[in-house]
Amino acid sequence: MQVCFQAPVVTRQRAIDARAAQCRKFDNNSFNGYFFTWVPYLKVKDRDECELNCLAKGHKFFLRLSPKVEDGTSCLSDLEKVCIDGKCKDLPSECKEGGCFSTKPSEARKERRSGIFTSGDVSRGQLILGYNPVITIPAGATNVNITEIRRSKNYLALKSHDSNKYYINGNWVIDLPKGYDVAGTTFYYTRPRRNKAGHEAFIATGPTDEDLDVMLLYQDDEPRIMYSYFLPKDYLNKNQAQQPAEPAGFGQRGVQVQPTQSVTNGNLYVWKLTGFTQCTHSCAGGLQETVYQCSSLTDNSAVEQSACQWNQKPQQRQRICNLQPCPPRWEPSQWGLCSKTCGPGLQIRSLLCKQLVDSNGARKDQMLPISYCPQWQRPNPSQKCNLRPCPLPANWTVGEWSKCSVTCERGLKQRIVTCTDIKNTSVNESFCGHRSKPAITKSCFAGSCKTEWFTSHKWSQCSVPCGRGEKSRLVFCGRKGGDALLSGQCPQAQKPSSSRACNNGKCQATWVTSEWSKCSVECGTGTQSRVVFCAGMVGDMHRQFPDHACLLNPKPATLQSCGNDSCAPEWYTSKWGKCSRSCGGGNQVRDVMCLDHKGQTSKECQSRHKPYHYQR
């Protein structure tokens, strides 16, 4: 194939006009049930200038309607270059001289297949709980985009067309969003987190090397799934004889291209115009779209749409309907301000009489005398407002001053000042306007910024009632007239001592012991313990002392061994074994052993107490 580009004088406006013509081709395509007029969107990065980005006229959004503009469209960043296969490339010298150049047919000859799948595309009328087919993507597809355009509790899934092998989200297991190597390419699976913006989607560059089925794991909610991919035209021509009609329930596929008619089981099927959709408006001009039905040429009967080829379906056309003016109607303005700020007041609004009419294809309002509008429908031009009592007499109420805003030197203090009525309810400050508002700030002095050590005047009592102990006092870092600071903010070499030794005389202390506890074992050798502590008399009170007060005498033991009687051995048995026969009389045996308290074999067990090791 040859793509020929002539070499006229290229201007930026010509490059924009070329994109405008390509955007207009999508004017008759429905997006989410709405039709838009598309114009070029030019505020894109240079790397995206060869994509077809179009702005919905009169709206604040744009879409990438095609991953690339038509080959030969001038680049916007450099008018000496052209877009080829979605890339901005230098124009070959032969084209600059008015000639042409060749591109690969696989890159230049492609057709886009797209549509939107809803539950209305299912032949049985409703989706089943579980996996439902959406669209079959043929081998060789490129620029694949499967996107859920309405958030739901459903999930997209991807499987092989020729087997039941799932690649993504199969067997009721939802996979992580990431890239998956499928059918010779990488499918990027995206799924937004809960409460986050975005849509679930499969995106792949392609080409695919096998037929793939896009499935819907249906759970709840009405699905809306947009699909789009590209196929080489020569692929469509080669496969038109072998491709069977698509199964019902897959929505709009558009993946087979037949010459003019569909042949299924020896029958001919064609698209037939059967009427128009309901008018979008009942008056002042609306739009109707053509409705096509797949019909049999044999008996002119309607058949399933999957019997006809989607690429042969005529393009949707529109016609204007219901041009008569709409009935006159009242249109009130916004309510005005209330006549009073408190107590009963009145709000007023103006009333206009309008009529919606068709004006050269546009729906516009025209003003009419108020006598044209039905008086029985006339809205109320006034209403009562602010039906609340006016606040009681009010005065200023002041709060406590805050701390100084700085830790040293001069700063500011703040307080809350509110206007309150005699019930101590906060009201608008205008009700206290007869008196000047008290100050909400004042200056303050937080002391010198010079730091120094401060100590408490008195030492604490000695830490022990007798013997050698310790006294302590509070030492902190601070500023004169200010608050305490971290100790690291004062010179450590000048820090006063916070403790000193004290001696309250010789302690008359001795060790005190409790009774021994019960032996830890009933037989054999075990241990028993007791409590040992240092105590003595202070005045007429018996007090416990630290252990070092009794160290002149050795501390009594707190543990000792106990129990001299050895434990008698006992008989131990295992579980009964399996019966020797499955029916009739059989035998069961088990192990019987004599063990001491340490688990060692013993011969000291009494034989008259030995359990049976055999039973029938």
Please state roughly what percent of the residues sit in beta strands, choosing from under 5%, 5-15%, 15-25%, 25-35%, 35-45% or over 45%.
35-45%
Which regions have little confidence, pLDDT < 50, spanning 5+ residues? 1-9, 93-108, 237-261
The CATH architecture term of the domain at 110-237 is Sandwich
Cα distance, first to last residue? 95 Å
Apparent shape: extended
Q: Count of DSSP E strands? A: 44
Mean pLDDT: 80
Q: What is the helix tally?
A: 4
Strand order of the largest sheet: 8-17-10-15-14-13
Give a short account of the largest sheet. Answer: 6 strands, antiparallel
CATH topology of the domain at 110-237, which one?
Answer: Jelly Rolls
- The Rg value, from CA coordinates, equals 47 Å
Share of helix, binned? under 10%
CATH class of the domain at 110-237: Mainly Beta
Structure report:
The chain is built from 4 helices and 44 strands. Among the domains are: 12-95, YefM-like fold; 110-237, Sandwich (Jelly Rolls); 270-321, no CATH class; 386-432, no CATH class; 509-516 and 525-563, no CATH class; 571-615, no CATH class. The protein is mainly beta.
List keywords for this structure.
extended; 616 residues; 4 helices; YefM-like fold; 4-stranded antiparallel β-sheet; Jelly Rolls; 6-stranded antiparallel β-sheet; 44 strands; mainly beta
Question: What is the compact description of this entry?
Answer:
This protein is mainly beta and 616 residues long. The protein contains 4 helices and 44 strands.
